[in-house]
Design a protein that fits this description.
35% strand; globular; single chain; 127 residues; four-stranded mixed beta sheet
């Protein structure tokens, strides 16, 4: 592996109800997901840095995608302060399971929540 790049290349968050999950993530993070329909499964792509040509991840709906609170834990970037995004989680249909918690002064803060589909996910910010 090239040590000058990030380890994470791509992530997919399984969803049971695509439209509900799309609305949830757009509401919580204040973004618009780009929808791709592959005729059998759908993806809602999260925005990435303009012009870098790299995508980060998507919500995914299809027969092999099953929401879960077990397994890998994805942390979303909620900079500058995750308090703003976290405040929208329950209003959007999710549940906060770990409030904003400082990791350390150098590494910032994290919080964990269950999304509208039953996935355990988290967010991170410097403040």
């Amino acid at each position: 592996m090239d040590k000058t790049t990030n380890t994470l290349n791509w992530f997919e968050v399984p969803v049971a109800d695509f439209d509900r999950a799309k609305k949830f993530y757009e509401t919580v993070f204040g973004v618009e997901l780009f929808v791709m329909d592959f005729g059998g499964f759908k993806m809602g792509l999260f925005p990435s840095e303009p012009g870098n040509g790299k995508l980060t991840g998507a919500i995914c709906h299809g027969e092999w995608y099953k929401p879960s609170q077990d397994g890998a834990l994805v942390y979303f970037n909620a900079n500058p302060d995750l308090s703003d995004c976290l405040a929208r989680v329950e209003k959007a249909g999710g549940k906060v399971i770990r409030p904003k918690t400082q990791i350390s002064p150098e590494y910032g803060n994290m919080a964990m929540f269950i999304d509208s589909e039953g996935n355990r996910v988290a967010m991170h910010s410097q403040k």
